Every structure is written in structure tokens, then in C-alpha cells.
Amino acid sequence: MYDGPLGHERRDIGHEKTFLSLWSEKAASDLAIAQHAKFSFLIDSDRKILDDAVTPYCSNLIPLVHQWRALHKQALLTDTVVDICDIARVLDKFIAGMPEEHPAEMAYTLNHLTA
User: Fold this and answer.
1) 2 and 58 in contact (C-beta within 8 Å)?
2) What stretches of 1-85 adopt beta strand conformation (E)?
3) Which domain holds residue 18?
4) What is the pLDDT of residues 72-81, one digit of tens each?
5) First to last CA, the chain
6) What's the whole-model pTM score?
7) CA distance 87 to 67
């Protein structure tokens, strides 16, 4: 839903055209639709669907999302639960590989404090 920092919302797509709509508004009227939409998203092997929906600003998060999906897919297929330690390992690995950058809010503040 976002294509920039500080909550800059996308203008090319509305909420009703996203996965989130199927998971939220549709759940109120038909829980089976919401359940199917989440299940399909988690185990769908077509990575392109998600990759195409992500804006360039958020594209560096795609590998994290695919790792997250892989955890949940494995749990669904083996009828197990995703352990918090598995999630922590995925997040730790992703964070360790991130370039050292300041968040937009911090960069803005630092630029104005040094000026």
C-alpha cells in the first residue's frame, strides 16, 4: 500500500485491489474466502505475483517476504506451527544483511541538526 517513506501511499492501486482486502473486508462477509486467500498466498509457488505487486521503494523486502512465506508453507504442508525461533532466525539474517542506512525520519533530523 506504500511507495515511499513516512506513510507515502500508492496512488496506482486501492486497498480493495490488494491481498489485504481479501484478508480483511472479505473475512467479515465470508471467512472461507479470507482463509483461501491467505492459504493461497502462503503456499503459492508463483513468486512473481508478489514481486510484481511490490513497489520499487519496498523491493528490498522481497527476499524477507519469500523467506517468511517458506516458513509458513513448510508449517502448513507438515501440519506444524512456525516457531518463534524460526522467525527470529529469518529476521536476524535479513537484518544482518541490510546496508547501514538511517531511516528517513532520522536522516531528515540529522541533516537539519548538522545544517
Assistant:
1) yes
2) 2-4, 8-9
3) 2-114
4) 888 888 999 9
5) 33
6) 0.65
7) 9
